[in-house]
Amino acid sequence: MHDHAPGIRGTGNRRLLAISLAITSVVMVVQIVGAALSGSLALLADAAHMFTDAAALVIALIASVVAARPANDRRTFGFQRAEVFGALVNGVILIALSVWVAIEGIQRLLNPSDVEVSGGLMLVIAIIGLIANAVAMWLLSAAQRTSINVRGAYLEVMGDLIGSAAVIVAAIVIVTTGWLQADAIASLLIAAMIIPRAISLLREVVSVLSESTPKGMHVTEIRDHILSTPGVVDCHDVHVWQLTRGAPVFTAHVVVDDAALADGQSAAILQRLQSCLSEHFDVEHSTFQLEPAGHVEHDAHA
Known about the structure:
By secondary structure, this protein is mostly helical. It contains 9 helices and 3 strands, in the order H-H-H-H-H-H-H-E-E-H-H-E. It has helices spanning 11-38, 41-67, 81-110, 119-140, 148-177, 181-209, 219-227, 258-262, 266-281, and strands at 232-242, 248-256, 285-292. The chain has a 3-stranded mixed sheet. Helix 1 (11-38) runs antiparallel to helix 4 (119-140), helix 2 runs antiparallel to helix 5 (148-177) and helix 3 (81-110) runs antiparallel to helix 6.
């Protein structure tokens, strides 16, 4: 006995991702040209980050389209896990990018006289990038709370926003003091900001793929709610996991009082249990096996 609600989101997220991709792609080209003309490594690093943002948004769009496909006999939960795999690719890209930026930044810091940096042009391009990233973040801010895939893209854009701010500061320092090392330091700061976000995203991906209990949900609390339902005398084999961010799944074996079963209250008890999970824990897909008292369990779980 279970709830068949699929909980699939998608079209709104895809539209936001497409708009963000367009903004990111345009600014990326502007930053690449600006980096070539100004000689700024920090601006080039930010452009490279924008490139990974564009790639991440493309991956997110593809994953979102795949995730919206209906369930079938081989994919009974649908394709929502595609979002998780998209986030996994994003996390790997972030780590690879941070290593490249760090290496280039250290080389530029040790040899600042190898290139000339035009602080004025660097400042103008960085301001354009800051504004564009702020707009993209605003577009994705709501959707990232319910989709791990969109969250991956959101984190990348947020890193770019901070990176653009660092480039602006470095450009101001170069314009006012002529200290070229500020460009290399800004590059290293960008690399340092990328790594924690990548680790956080990959940690969430591992949590989903290992079918851990979603963050903020407590099995003990859920079991207490179930046991407080009239007619329920015991609860065991409780499992909670998530297909992707915002799509938790729940199963449990519930022992029901014999009198309640004899009175034909099974349907009412099931409805109360599903409503409880939906209202208190935001679980759209819940499965309950109702058992009479004294039922002998034949599976391997205690």
